[in-house]
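The freezer alarm interrupted the setup, so I double-checked each line after restarting. Inputs confirmed:
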Amino acid sequence: MDAAVDGVVLMDHGGRIQAFNRAAERLFGYPAAEVLGANIGILIPESGRMDHDGYVERFVATRIPHIIGRGREVEARRKDGSVFPVLLSVGVVEGGEPPRFVGFVRDLSLRRRAEEENHRLQERLTHVSRLATVGEMSAGIAHELNQPLAAVANYAQACDRLLGLPDPDVEEIRDALKQITAQAVRAGDIIRRLRALARNDVMHREPTDINPLVSELTELIRMDATAHGVHYELELGGGLPQVEIDRAQVQQVILNLVRNAVEALREVTRAPRQVTVRTRLIEGSVEISVCDNGPGVSQTIAPHLFSPFCTTKVHGTGLGLAMSRTIIKSHQGSLDYRPNTPSGACFTVRLPLTGQE
Amino acid sequence: MKERAPIVSIVDDDDAARSSLRLLLKSLGLAAIAYDSAASFLAGYDPQQHGCHLVDIRMPGMSGLELQQVLNQRGGFTPIIFITGHGDVPMAVEAMRQGAFDFLQKPFRDQELLDRVQRAIAKDHSLRQQLRSNDDIRRRLDSLTDREHDVLALVAAGSPNKVIAHKLGISQRTVEIHRARVMEKMHADSLAQLVHITAVIGIPYRRTATGRSSSVLPEGPALAGR
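Predicted 3D structure, all chains:
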């Protein structure tokens, strides 16, 4: 028993510790002598104690194993009071009445820490990627903010001049002042939406309706599209069921795809330059497609499209599509490319419905 | 002839831009008509209307530059002032190359707007006057008889009456009579003026079978000197 890598703890039907191997000593921080005869409860944090007592009682009464035999992730408590994750498998010791139980305890702290680190890095990367998108959209944003500012400048100067007239039209001037307020609010809205895009949210999945999510992006997309002389079309399919997604992440992917489309359309001089976003239900998934009528993707690039660091943009990072695919895959969905007819590219995101991942 | 008051045409897809600009122009004593797109402008504008165009350079659908191209193709000469935003310099340069009168970066000061618009309107006024004057000249030329026309061509070329008489096979006295009629019909007070007037149209020029002069807009350089 002492040679075992995992902690092994033997307890009687009353929950008293009868044996405690070397690994268990290391895991829990107790020398065996200290715990022998003590209740198993000392190895379990407050939160799990009642459950454990309940399991043992139930087994003794019914002989039906609930925790018995299966490895479960539970929390354990060290001597110093610290709580750590373990994989626990419990078995009944052959022969003997009343029954005795043996627990195999595997330390999961390292694995848990690695998972958390991975999660944290994913969030950072998503956030940075989102900021990069915001940066790329800055031309459109600056242009968009300039509109209300210019209107305010016009209205204010007009009011100044109108007040200089011998018999000023007060109603006209008052109306102009109301317009000034409206334009200031308009500018505020644009900034607020920008900040919402750049915020650093914790990743959080919930059942979501796709159409409102896509519609929310319309203003931002139009800013980008108009600034580059691109026409934006939105076609929302009806009756779409909910999908289990992280809102910010999926919005990030859509913005990324639209950004790419707008960039690709720079080459096109013949109007109309068009990006179309469509949502629909197909083959049991909710599909969001972003299509453009640009030059499309060449045969040489196509196989490497989703590879990290593959880019045709002058200032591209090559991370956009790779990241987008990773995000969608982590939602058990798919992100694919197909050529558009008669020309251009279509990127389709498919997300499984809630309860189907 | 009494002139209609000039009107500024505003072409901009942004509601607030149109509205605020119209009010600002009004406060500057200028009348304006606003269009929400290049298409609605092309459908509704009057080429005969004296004034100038204020066009936003960035518009969805037909852009400001594309609108300029269409107007150029139609032979439009009304001055266009483009309204640009930050980072629109390359577009502004292209617009100027394609014959735009001016461009203004927004937001702008009302005095700046007033100065540019007034200059554009003055340019438009002078262009239209020139065209009307050319029309007058052409009409007067059309009123000449064939013989009078021949005499005009030779007089403008600097030939003395004796030479003209010889060339046309008529008497010098007849030449003198034709010459006097030509001066009268062309509203010219001197030979120098006659030469100047005809230089604008271009003598010799082709007379069609019906005896009417072909109406062609004078070349750019002829106007530039005005």
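Quick read of the result. The CA atoms of residues 234 and 277 of chain A lie 5 Å apart.
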